[in-house]
Amino acid sequence: MIKFEHVGLRYGVGPEVLTDVNFKLEPGSFHFLSGPSGAGKTSLLSLLYLGRRPTRGLISMFGRDVGQLSRTELKDIRQNIGVVFQDFRLLNHMSAFDNIALPLRIMGHSEHEIQENVGELMEWVGLGDHTQMLPPTLSGGQQQRVAIARAVITRPRLLVADEPTGNLDDEAGLRLLTLFDQLNRMGTSVIIASHNMPLMEKFSQHRRLLLNNGKVDIVTPNIEIKQKLEGMF
Prior knowledge:
36% of the residues lie in helices and 24% in strands. The protein has 233 residues and is of the alpha/beta class. The model has no long low-confidence stretch (mean pLDDT 88).
């Protein structure tokens, strides 16, 4: 589903943040993205959700070379990708319901479809009693669930999340990752950037993308990987 071949990324005339990145991700996969602070995790995620183009190399998404796509074609591809940002990026003047419904309204869905789908999803993420509340009146964990619901309301093929548990306590973080795991079981591919090793170890069945010195390794969790991760921080 995703293929990076010799991908590099730099900002302006500075040195490359990502250097010769190569990996493939299969449909329905679940990966944690780990690496030391400043390794380029957010930059890699921005390439995955097509927030920016690489400086060099080839990125294929869903069987298409994104470097050859027009703006309209890129927009179509982005509709298959849900993004959860670390700072949520909710619209504070809109209710939780309307924040979640926004992607469907942009896509032109009927209000009947929106009412049914958004209501069902809010129940699923445990926010059925908070439909009309504004984001500033919600807890951090509740805002995060609104952000997740908004990201998955269009049933994307890929969900990308940048440090989604960074502002949550361990219990709330565990509930959140369990939600991501359930989404993955329903067929959505998931990539989560995280530095919370104890929390990731609770989901040790999932593979890791290890980013260090601008390059990526895909590994299966085991004791050696734990030691490698610990050596990065």
